[in-house]
Amino acid sequence: MIRKRIIPCLDVKDGRVVKGVSFLNLRDAGDPVELATQYDQSGADEVVFLDISASQEGRGTMIEVVRQAAGQLRIPFTVGGGIRDPEDMFQLLRAGADKVSVNTAAILDPSLIAAGARRFGNQCIVVAIDARWEEDEDDWFVYTHGGRKKTGLRVVDWAQEAVSLGAGEILLTSMDQDGQKNGFDIPLTQAVTSAVRVPVIASGGAGTEEDFVEVFQETPVEAALAASIFHYREISLEDLKATLREEGVHVR
User: Fold this and answer.
1) For residue range 13-52, what is the model confidence (pLDDT) as tens digits?
2) Domain 5-246 indexed as CATH 1.20.120.1200
3) Catalytically annotated residue among 11, 40, 45, 185
């Protein structure tokens, strides 16, 4: 049986971890490597580093943070933000990342997914999708550039295309729920997990231990990601995993 993963996410801007609400009103949450090391020691299954301003500002991902993290962490970690071509992927993987996450660049040039998968393997390629519900169109649409630009892509269609091109995992963030702390977007998560055959990471909205129980019990998602509730110690990883086990969720 597949064991569910708990993944703290570290949104990095100017070398510091930040967190906001629905991608806005960012506040400082600490040093990325120090936080990641704490999560490693307290039972996280993986961590994700996302340079949230890299695509908007047109610069590359923080290689030095990756090198430092690789020297400290025992658990796998994924890095995203500002990846424009397979060479960027290579530099991050060589610096110590286990997986790379692409978002904006993959939408601008979907062949990037296929090129990365061919060179490094599907298991190294994560496609991050920032999704927002559009009431007038009765569907979820994909946003790029850190949630600043709406595309004409429907989320489920893009998830399926990304997997067909070689994505080995989908990191699915609900912009509507992000930072709200009132639960994961269950309908969105159900829609995407039922449409693809690769692991999906649910992201956006976690506020309580029960939110994790719900997303694992109500959807076949393989991992759940959160940020502020871990950064500000509102929930401990140890307590969360104990609760999940008590509720019959198989965790690592």
Assistant:
1) 877 877 655 445 555 667 899 999 999 999 999 999 988 7
2) no
3) 11
